[in-house]
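Board notes (copied after class):
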Amino acid sequence: MSEQSATAPTEERDSRLRPVTEGEWAGWSLWHTDAFEQRAGPFYERVDEHGDGITAFRAGPNHMNGGGFMHGGCLMTFADAALFTIARPAMAGSFGVTVNLAGDFLDGARPGEFMEARGQITRGARSLVFVRGLVTADGRPVLSFSGIIKKVGRRPDVASAGG
Protein backbone atom coordinates (compact mmCIF):
# COMPACT_ATOMS: atom_id res chain seq x y z
CA MET A 1 0.00 0.00 0.00
CA SER A 2 1.16 3.50 -0.65
CA GLU A 3 0.98 6.37 1.77
CA GLN A 4 -2.42 7.13 0.27
CA SER A 5 -3.79 3.86 1.59
CA ALA A 6 -2.61 4.49 5.14
CA THR A 7 -5.39 7.05 5.49
CA ALA A 8 -8.14 5.10 3.74
CA PRO A 9 -10.78 4.08 6.30
CA THR A 10 -11.20 0.56 4.89
CA GLU A 11 -7.47 -0.16 4.78
CA GLU A 12 -5.18 -1.55 7.44
CA ARG A 13 -1.45 -1.15 7.77
CA ASP A 14 0.72 -4.26 7.69
CA SER A 15 4.31 -4.15 8.92
CA ARG A 16 5.36 -6.59 6.18
CA LEU A 17 4.45 -4.08 3.47
CA ARG A 18 7.23 -1.57 2.77
CA PRO A 19 6.88 1.70 0.85
CA VAL A 20 9.13 2.28 -2.16
CA THR A 21 10.54 5.81 -2.15
CA GLU A 22 12.72 5.93 -5.29
CA GLY A 23 12.71 4.99 -8.95
CA GLU A 24 9.89 3.78 -11.16
CA TRP A 25 8.00 2.34 -8.20
CA ALA A 26 8.11 5.37 -5.88
CA GLY A 27 4.70 5.68 -4.23
CA TRP A 28 4.06 1.94 -4.41
CA SER A 29 4.72 -0.67 -1.71
CA LEU A 30 6.31 -4.08 -1.74
CA TRP A 31 5.88 -7.22 0.39
CA HIS A 32 9.36 -7.71 1.79
CA THR A 33 8.49 -10.96 3.60
CA ASP A 34 7.18 -12.97 0.63
CA ALA A 35 10.25 -14.57 -0.94
CA PHE A 36 8.24 -16.25 -3.69
CA GLU A 37 6.59 -13.01 -4.85
CA GLN A 38 9.96 -11.25 -4.76
CA ARG A 39 11.43 -13.93 -7.01
CA ALA A 40 8.38 -14.21 -9.29
CA GLY A 41 7.92 -10.44 -9.69
CA PRO A 42 8.61 -8.51 -7.72
CA PHE A 43 5.01 -7.31 -7.49
CA TYR A 44 4.12 -3.83 -6.24
CA GLU A 45 0.86 -2.47 -4.92
CA ARG A 46 -0.86 0.77 -4.06
CA VAL A 47 -4.33 2.19 -3.54
CA ASP A 48 -5.67 4.58 -6.19
CA GLU A 49 -7.60 7.80 -5.64
CA HIS A 50 -10.87 5.82 -5.47
CA GLY A 51 -9.57 3.50 -2.73
CA ASP A 52 -9.14 0.53 -5.07
CA GLY A 53 -6.13 -1.76 -4.71
CA ILE A 54 -3.80 -2.05 -7.72
CA THR A 55 -0.99 -4.55 -8.20
CA ALA A 56 1.70 -4.06 -10.86
CA PHE A 57 5.14 -5.03 -12.14
CA ARG A 58 7.32 -4.50 -15.20
CA ALA A 59 7.57 -7.56 -17.49
CA GLY A 60 11.15 -8.73 -17.83
CA PRO A 61 12.95 -11.44 -19.79
CA ASN A 62 12.77 -13.69 -16.70
CA HIS A 63 8.94 -13.69 -16.95
CA MET A 64 8.82 -15.00 -20.52
CA ASN A 65 8.29 -18.49 -21.91
CA GLY A 66 10.25 -20.08 -24.76
CA GLY A 67 8.06 -18.29 -27.32
CA GLY A 68 8.97 -14.85 -25.98
CA PHE A 69 5.60 -14.16 -24.30
CA MET A 70 4.87 -14.00 -20.59
CA HIS A 71 4.62 -17.45 -19.08
CA GLY A 72 1.05 -18.37 -18.09
CA GLY A 73 2.28 -19.45 -14.67
CA CYS A 74 3.70 -15.97 -14.12
CA LEU A 75 0.37 -14.38 -15.06
CA MET A 76 -1.52 -16.69 -12.68
CA THR A 77 1.00 -16.05 -9.88
CA PHE A 78 0.51 -12.32 -10.43
CA ALA A 79 -3.30 -12.75 -10.40
CA ASP A 80 -3.03 -14.68 -7.12
CA ALA A 81 -1.02 -11.85 -5.55
CA ALA A 82 -3.53 -9.31 -6.88
CA LEU A 83 -6.43 -11.20 -5.26
CA PHE A 84 -5.12 -10.20 -1.86
CA THR A 85 -4.52 -6.55 -2.79
CA ILE A 86 -8.05 -6.29 -4.16
CA ALA A 87 -9.59 -8.20 -1.22
CA ARG A 88 -7.81 -6.31 1.57
CA PRO A 89 -10.83 -4.15 2.56
CA ALA A 90 -12.90 -7.30 3.16
CA MET A 91 -10.15 -9.23 4.95
CA ALA A 92 -10.55 -7.28 8.23
CA GLY A 93 -6.93 -7.91 9.21
CA SER A 94 -7.14 -11.66 8.66
CA PHE A 95 -4.64 -13.99 7.09
CA GLY A 96 -6.03 -15.71 4.03
CA VAL A 97 -5.38 -18.57 1.65
CA THR A 98 -6.46 -18.93 -1.95
CA VAL A 99 -9.05 -21.70 -2.27
CA ASN A 100 -9.89 -21.07 -5.92
CA LEU A 101 -8.23 -19.19 -8.77
CA ALA A 102 -9.46 -19.29 -12.36
CA GLY A 103 -8.17 -17.38 -15.33
CA ASP A 104 -8.86 -16.83 -19.00
CA PHE A 105 -5.84 -15.90 -21.11
CA LEU A 106 -6.76 -13.15 -23.55
CA ASP A 107 -3.45 -12.10 -25.11
CA GLY A 108 0.29 -12.43 -24.64
CA ALA A 109 2.45 -9.97 -22.73
CA ARG A 110 5.92 -8.98 -23.90
CA PRO A 111 9.13 -7.86 -22.19
CA GLY A 112 9.08 -4.25 -21.04
CA GLU A 113 5.30 -3.95 -20.76
CA PHE A 114 3.69 -2.47 -17.65
CA MET A 115 1.60 -5.23 -16.04
CA GLU A 116 -1.32 -4.08 -13.92
CA ALA A 117 -4.12 -5.91 -12.10
CA ARG A 118 -7.32 -4.25 -10.93
CA GLY A 119 -10.59 -5.71 -9.80
CA GLN A 120 -13.39 -5.75 -7.31
CA ILE A 121 -14.74 -7.71 -4.42
CA THR A 122 -17.88 -9.43 -5.66
CA ARG A 123 -18.82 -10.72 -2.22
CA GLY A 124 -17.26 -10.51 1.21
CA ALA A 125 -18.63 -13.04 3.66
CA ARG A 126 -17.64 -14.02 7.21
CA SER A 127 -14.98 -16.51 6.11
CA LEU A 128 -14.75 -16.15 2.30
CA VAL A 129 -13.96 -13.25 -0.03
CA PHE A 130 -14.86 -13.49 -3.73
CA VAL A 131 -12.85 -11.39 -6.19
CA ARG A 132 -12.73 -10.82 -9.93
CA GLY A 133 -10.17 -8.87 -11.86
CA LEU A 134 -8.34 -8.06 -15.05
CA VAL A 135 -4.62 -8.05 -15.82
CA THR A 136 -3.47 -5.65 -18.51
CA ALA A 137 -0.16 -5.23 -20.34
CA ASP A 138 0.37 -1.57 -21.26
CA GLY A 139 -3.42 -1.22 -20.94
CA ARG A 140 -4.23 -4.21 -23.20
CA PRO A 141 -6.26 -7.00 -21.50
CA VAL A 142 -4.20 -10.20 -21.17
CA LEU A 143 -5.92 -12.18 -18.37
CA SER A 144 -9.33 -12.08 -16.73
CA PHE A 145 -9.43 -13.88 -13.40
CA SER A 146 -11.62 -14.73 -10.44
CA GLY A 147 -10.75 -16.20 -7.11
CA ILE A 148 -11.89 -17.03 -3.62
CA ILE A 149 -9.89 -16.35 -0.46
CA LYS A 150 -10.62 -18.13 2.81
CA LYS A 151 -9.90 -16.14 5.95
CA VAL A 152 -7.83 -18.29 8.31
CA GLY A 153 -7.07 -16.14 11.35
CA ARG A 154 -6.23 -12.67 12.56
CA ARG A 155 -2.81 -11.17 11.85
CA PRO A 156 -1.18 -9.93 15.06
CA ASP A 157 0.95 -7.30 13.24
CA VAL A 158 -1.90 -5.26 11.76
CA ALA A 159 -2.99 -1.91 13.15
CA SER A 160 -6.23 -0.34 12.04
CA ALA A 161 -5.95 2.81 9.95
CA GLY A 162 -7.29 4.84 12.84
CA GLY A 163 -4.79 3.47 15.35
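Comment from the instructor: The radius of gyration is 15 Å. Residues 1-12, 158-163 have pLDDT under 50 and may be disordered.
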